[in-house]
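Reopening this one. Same input as before:
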Amino acid sequence: MAFRKFLPLFDRVLVERLAAETVTKGGIMLPEKSQGKVLQATVVAVGPGSVNQKGNILPMSVKVGEQVLLPEYGGTKISLEDKDYFLFRDGDILGKYVD
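Same output, byte for byte:
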């Protein structure tokens, strides 16, 4: 897998956005412009955490495999082996889904 070759630094999180809905519940195909921006993603890699002024590492708030809610704008797009991923800071992630 591509993300095994890439490790984010400090407090950065590598995520893969979920696919946009292309069909409504009633079976109607949605054109690309009508599809909303997908704000949910799966965490595929995390950095070790940020360092505070005393030199201690602050732990990350998300783990690999968790579903998270992203802000509408932001993040850095990265292409690894023909697949698009996004890099966010840990503090930019709005929340995570729990079962």
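So the earlier flakiness isn't reproducible anymore. For the record, The mean pLDDT is 81.
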